[in-house]
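Lab channel / #folding
Pinned by the channel admin:
"Please post every new chain as: sequence first, then the structure tokens as a reply. Keep commentary short and put observations after the output so the thread stays searchable."

First post following the new format, from NK:
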Amino acid sequence: MSEYPMHVVHDGPGEAPPLLLIHGSGASSGSWKPLIPALAARHHVIRIDLPGCGQSPPPPSYDVPAQAARVAAVLDGLRLRSVAVAAHSSGGYVATALAEQRPDLVGSLMLISTGPGLDALLPQPLLLRVLMAPPFGPILWSTRSDAMMRRGITATCVRPVDIPDDVIAELRGTTYRAVRSVLRANEAYIAERSVPERLAGLGVPLLVIFGAADPRWDPASAHRYETVPGARLELLRGVGHVPIFEATEATASLLLTHTATAREP
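Reply from TO:
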């Protein structure tokens, strides 16, 4: 896997309990920045740019299990085991595949706004549909302005949010082809088997955070995760698809409580 390197960012003390953060489709490691001050106070935080996103080069395959294998290679290179893993949106599929492949690497799992199955997907906001649909999508993507990228993010939010310039700048490394490939791979992964079905027999401590007003995934579908033994579900009232920006303090608190509880004997 070393011939396909991934961009990795470290925050917090190296001797603290490790916490891996996996972003969603078309995003980058920078999408976690609002949470970093709180999380890095208690954890060695490891943020990655998934293959083809941000500063990570495109891979030969965007299949979810292949992406998970590359994440596993990063953790192996850092000599880490039983890592707390938090993922946003479709990053949850990579996190789930990682737990399936390498249970030794995943000590606990936290999924934020991760749709459980294809039938839970809602009609997407118009701007996102235009950006992703050929023949004009590739043109709009390559010429997209900072303002358009901000609108693309906020289209899935319910509360007003401020997206910093450096977060927007990091998104420029993600190509139209990469996002289209990732979306197709994600669909194939959850069409084969839903996320709750995949997690049900793994025994990984699970926290699911969902915006109660998520415009991308039916918020009611979050209850499907309750079929996973011991899973904890938190629905955030008045929050859309991006709790990291819309409810930063509440999200950080939930993540930290879960990681602390999962470490208890």
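NK: The CA atoms of residues 49 and 179 lie 13 Å apart.
TO: also worth noting, The chain has a mean pLDDT of 92.
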